[in-house]
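Re: weekly structure request thread

Next one in the queue (443 aa):
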Amino acid sequence: MTYRSPHATRRSHRRPAALLLAAALAAPLAAGCGSTGATTPAAPPVIRVSASAGRPAVDPAQVAATAAGTDAFGLDLLHTLTAEPDAAGRNLVLSPSGLATLLAMLLPGARGTTADELAKALHTGLTPQQYALATGALDRSAPADDDVTLRQSDDLWTQQGFAVQPDYLQTLADAFDTGVHPADFRADPENARKAVNAAVEKATEGRIKDLFAQGQISTETRMVLTDALYLKAKWASPFKPEHTADRPFHKLDGSAPNVSTMAQSGSLKYAEGSGGIVGEPWQAVELPYTGGGLAMDVIVPAQGGFAAFSKGLDQAQLDRILGGLAPRPVDLELPRFHFDTSKELTTTLRALGVNTAFDRNADFGGMSKEALTIGTVVQKATIEVDEEGTVAAAGSGAGMAGAAAPAPRPAQLHVDRPFLFLIRDTSSGRPLFLGQVTDPQAR
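Done, posted below.
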């Protein structure tokens, strides 16, 4: 991407990781999700693997390429999700950065076609480890300002006694400072689910609740990966509440209800245009948050042109719009809004070419010697915009299940006729009893 808007997701600094010897990584982990039937899951201990001494250097060109790929991935998600029946006219908030980080945690453990499909969906030609490190570098480059809170945390939950490859854990530590939580999915998947959800809820200041729905974590789950993202930022130039008023908002169905709309006038980065790749007229404005490290860009197609514009928007067009933003006086009116989006993304990712990872022949040999497949990928996101600024949060999660061979088609045997029987010692083959049955009712 030739232009990078300052609203890119970044990670705040986290507490130092504790050293865990590689020899201990494959050892059984202590249970930490509470007893069966507990209504409130106990907080499980967190094992942290230290990043390599002098964390591996990341090429800035790889970081830039990863940022551009995340933008393209985000547009792919937008187009795929809004193409769903009745979805084009509905509110949608998603976190491309959160989901890309989640998949970046999966990628170093994938092999063969599984890895190739994930990399293609993420628009990256980097090796899995390079991509993870570049994504982690993007996540860590948090802006510093007293009025901006931006936190991102990544965690791995593993079945008690499930051996995870030490090299995979080291990559997650180097890239994301990932915490490893022991869990007991086999014995108590519901309590484990509550513990995972509680950790995401805490990391997002209570904004993301119940990331995994009931049943999405089961006795077959072996690993769960989560990314939690929380943002609270004040506008550099807040809207004055006294200027907020009910104003018409023209919906796609032609109706125009009055909605609570903020207003301000001043110098903002602005652009407008038409033609080009999309061919529809548009206007765009950038609203900076305090500190200047983050901003919200608002892109508004002309009345009647939203569907065509949204469908045709690609990375090159987005580059052109954001690259054309320049300061000028703007009379701005912007509705207040607050809504949530919750999606199970298996179908969406399959539409983007990620198929093998969900199938029985998935190859996640870099994670574990045991066969694994992705059972579910979920994301919940929320956003609230008002006169003071923005609060937004997202939780992304993937559940990894054991990839047992598919059950064979059952044979049909109706014992409705005379039969023989044999009782034998299976170790030696010696028959203990042998006989036949021609009339089960006879004595």
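The longest helix spans residues 60-82. The longest strand covers residues 258-273.
Next request, please.
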